[in-house]
Predict the structure.
Amino acid sequence: VAAFACYHGDEKMKIEVTISKEIDKYLEINKHGNPFILSIENNKSIKHLMEELGIPEKYVSIILVNMQHKSTNYVLKDGDKLSLFPAVAGG
Amino acid sequence: MQKIIRVDMQTLEVKEIKVPDELKNRGGRYVTSWLVSNQVPAACNPLGPDNKLIIAPGLLAGTSAPSSGRVSIGAKSPLTGGIKESNAGTPVAQALGRLGIKAIIVENTPKESDKTWVLCLDKDSIKIQEIKNLKMKSTSDTAEILKKQFGDKTKVICIGPAGDMRLSAAGVCFTDADGNSARYSGRGGMGAVMGSKNLKAIVINDEGLKNVEPLKRDLFKEGTKKFAAALSEHDVTKKGGSLNAYGTPGVVPVMSDSFYGFPTRNFSLGKWRASDVTSGQYEAELVKERGNGKMGHGCHTGCVIRCSNIYPHPDKLIASIEYESVGLLGSNCDIDNFDDIAMMVYLCNEAGLDTIDTGAAIGVAMEGGLLEFGDGKAAIELLKEVLKGTPVGRIIGSGAYITGKVFGVYRVPTVKKQALPAYDPRAVKGIGITYATSPMGADHTAGYTINGEVFGVGGKYDPLVTEGKAEYSRDIQVETAFIDQSGYCLFVTFASSDSESGMEGLLQSIEGFTGEIFTKEDLMSIGREIIDMELAFNKEAGFTKVDDRLPEFFYKETLPIVDQVFDVTDEQMSKTWE
């Protein structure tokens, strides 16, 4: 698991993030779809985090936090496992 | 004028019969399940003279409705011992629709077992004729021989060696829009039933025939236009959307890396180490890199989604790689070489085998020690054994259940003897309820709860929650039964469940076609009628609630990462059809 920190103010908590390959080209550091640890401030919503990471909201359709579907308004908590995926279906 | 064609394989008589009133405005799965329920004794031997093979195009097949080229095959299943309907998208569906055929009933078994027969249909005649030297021919050789004899444009339904040998994982193959033998009613051994009747193929010529005309033309036009628009706007079905750009294997990364439920090493793991190099996204890269193959291929003309694809294997072009095939033939066998997986798909298509049951069978054989997990080359050789008809090939071609018995394996992923598709039910609970309770045996398409549990389409349901999932699975199973009779592809439900105008267009297209008022309630009641017929048949065939359960290991063995067993209680499960 690759780790990189994102310092905006005090480091408060850590979350594990998986961002699908199709979207992570918007990231500063491409993670190729692999999970990574992110240190973020408290009280940050997914919407806010996506803005900071530079991921356009329109490209994200599946938002999973600890295996539960969430909206972008969800406020992240320490230890959360977050997955962001574009609209996919079929199989 | 609509007709039913009855072919008696013993007397070799071909008759046209009247369509019963009950089937007037019905197609596909309704027609196959109604005919099987009414004409096949539930206790019969599926390979004997009392079983019937039913072929029925969907209601709208042959019209101008978008993505409506589906055809259903039905019979009593030699795999499950229950009723079976398995459908496919193919120009064959549209040709049957244009010929005014409601259903073909193939009954009885032939007197001489060494002959192979071909049924020939065109606008002027229907006849059955003996064609020699077709036995044990692959599906592509069969189609080529028949196209040479009957013309290049001929559409072909046929079986491969697996069907000739009456193996219970044998499917029925259809030619695609390019004339390749690549479309399948794969599940439940329908190819074995066709083989038991020595019917190697059906050739269809619909040249010069026009589309089927709806009764209320304007309403039909309005409805199909609305519906096509909804399909073209929805994120997953639009041009350049995930289905069109990556095909169904576009789902591999999300199932493996976020939901941890992609079957790996005979359903012992849910995260696949090679998800990035066996995905639809990767296939799209290969198509670009190798300069051949194709994404966004249509399985029939008139499909607006176009999720089929042609894989650019260095040795040959292979249509089509599906999510389930990557799961069962790839990760479930720990095979990470995409070229090898594609070659396995090709060999299954050639032998006339269901890729799901065959992949699950190889996974079980690997666990039983016949070959090593991850050995793609050995798996390819094993599939060639099916084409040759050797004893070990026959075992694999009989599916995961039989293979498990032969190799004494405990972890055999089947329900009602039919292999599980590529969603681990411990990671996505609702789909486990569908697997367990569908009258078809384990079948994701019977009630695709993945829509809400994974994709968040048509509502969002948390995948690990069990509460409310029986009801959710039931509602989707009922709606799907309707879709399976309509001729529409199941994938249209992505748009109809998320878009009001999509659903409205769908309902209008049905009403416009039949001329009879049609509401969402009618849709659900027709779907329920189908399921009830099927459940009644299965009950008579000897199924009990014990058959509506997943294999024991899912309740006892924890799936890593999600750290879950399958914990839907028997009581919750029983709610499904109450």
